[in-house]
Amino acid sequence: MNKRKILKNIVTLYGMSIAKIVFPLLTLPYLTRVLSVESYGVVSYVKAVMQYMQIAVDFGFMLSGTKDIVNAKADHEKLEKEVGDILLARILLVAVSFVVLLGMIAVIPLLRANVGYTMLAFMTVFLSVFLFDYFFQGIEKMQVIALRFVTMRGVATAMTFVFVHSDKDVLLVPLLDAVGSLVAVLLVFVELKKENIAIRFSGVKAAWKKLRDSFVYFASNMATTAFGALNTLLIGAFLPATEVAYWSVCMQLIGAVQTMYTPIIDGVYPEMIRTKSWEFIKHLLIIFMPIVFAGSAFSIVVAPYVLQIVGGKQYVAATPLFRLLVPVLIFSFPAVVLGWPTLGALNKAAQVTKTTIISAIVQLGGLLGLIVTGRFTVLWIAVFRCITELVLLVSRGWYCWKFRREFSK
Fold first, then answer.
1. Beta carbons of 235 and 381 less than 8 angstroms apart
2. Taking the CB of residue 93, how many other CB atoms lie within 10 A of it?
3. Are 65 and 86 a contacting pair, CB within 8 Å?
4. Is residue 332 very low, low, confident or very high in pLDDT (cuts 50, 70, 90)?
């Protein structure tokens, strides 16, 4: 096991994860102050819709594509075809997603009232097709992924401060995100040239096969989105825009902490594909779980102060909601570790997807129950969000025990 390479990858991705936290925490307090609560609710709602669009366009290729790149590294021509086939598959997905988005605009009043904003937001989803993160993760050059992300978000954040000052500038928010993405795409193509990668297309049939092979990963990611974006969509459909804003700010803070988990997962995943070592995963959990518990306790204590700093005095009212969501942080770290880096490395993609879908069904059932019983409030939604994360952890832990003999010694 190349521990030095794993450590380098994790450190690099941690740098990117810190950037993922810093940039939103710079723009969040700024936007909540220069935009009205209603306008920020629109921004958050469209962002939730774009999460679904992004999941559809990604289609699990960050996992399946990474595995294909790892397996093709020794054959340069095959490597180029893998990149081309996945690119073509994602272009097809963009076209389908755009048609679906038009249908959503037609039936959802909030999107219909903000069609220009929605269309501009989709531009970033389209440009993501050309970022090739799965390729750079597969060849274990995480610094390229980190560089393009910092560039993309840095450009968008800086221009947001310069150009967005009130509700009348709200259309600039997605436009500036798209400009940042375009700059990142240009940098990525420079890196592809350095790697001597000429994109080769095998044809639509090969692209379709990539879609079939990656569907199980997509299903898992789409189900995972039910834990977050679906909640926001339903809150926007049944509750006032202010509730969307409160929920979105709390979930953005929770998501900022969860972002710190991603480098560990992405850093060990290629190595786990090769080694399938349970001891490595066990040591990982022993080291990091005490940090997760301590950080969660600290979050409960400082919640009102953080919300006031990030969102302003009008968001301190969301303190009970944020505190109810803290258990998500405790359950989600071991849940994601036992997912793709552990079960996925054993080629148990179906089981990873099954656990995610089961948890999503629990979440959906809870949401429907709240609607039917008239208890659809953000506090009750937070409770069910914690329950579903616990279901995900327990089910994945059970599968790891079931397949324990398939790990390497």
1. yes
2. 21
3. yes
4. very high
